Amino acid sequence: MVAKKKTLSMMLFSGSYGSQDAEYMCRIAEKAIDMGYDVQIFLYGDGVNAQLTDQAPKMFYNVGNALERLSEKGAVIKSCVRCSQARGYLDKDSEFDESQDRYPSSKTIDAVKIYSLYGFIDMIKQGDQILTFGSS
């Protein structure tokens, strides 16, 4: 009998560069994937700023690039639609695209799906372990 892979669900509340929360989350997520876990990440509150395209920090860990790498390794990354809309990440008149299973945005990296808060509820149900980073 093959054992079911464990799932690590993570939530980021903090912005990308105001603390090291986003960096630590990405590093733990990468290690978990390398150890055989399925990883799910939900960006909420200021955590949605991690999805911004063209991040160019000169002296900091590049969270946007890290999320792209995590997605390429199989991580599922979603972002709260209300938090994203409040911070200007949704394109004007953006509507849910069922074929892409996301709200479209030209301002976010492709690795992240802008989704309803129900996306995190699903992650909680599926997660064997749940970690939160930062506070809102």
Briefly characterize the structure.
With 136 residues, the chain is of the alpha/beta class. It has four helices and five strands, in the order βαβαβαβαβ.
Layout of secondary structure:
Blueprint lengths: L6 E6 L8 H14 L3 E6 L19 H10 L3 E5 H6 L25 E4 L2 H9 L2 E5 L3
Parallel strand pairs: 1-2, 1-5, 2-3, 3-4
Helix pairs in contact: 1-2
Describe the model.
The protein is an alpha/beta fold and 136 residues long. The protein has a single domain, classed as DsrEFH-like (Hypothetical Protein Ychn, Chain: A). Helices cover 29% and strands 19% of the residues. It contains four helices and five strands, in the order βαβαβαβαβ. Helix 1 (21-34) links the parallel strand 1 and strand 2 (38-43).
Strand order of the largest sheet: 4-3-2-1-5
- Name of the CATH architecture: 3-Layer(aba) Sandwich
Overall outline: globular
Low-confidence segments: none
The CATH topology corresponds to Hypothetical Protein Ychn, Chain: A
Strand content: 15-25%
- What's the CATH class, please? Alpha Beta
Average pLDDT, rounded to a whole number, is: 92
Order of SSEs, N→C? Answer: EHEHEHEHE
Class computed from helices, strands and strand pairing? alpha/beta
Rg, nearest Å: 14 Å
Number of helices: 4
Count the strands? 5
Largest sheet: 5 strands, parallel
Termini separation: 42 Å
CATH superfamily: DsrEFH-like
Number of domains: 1
Tell me roughly what share of residues is in helical segments: 25-40%
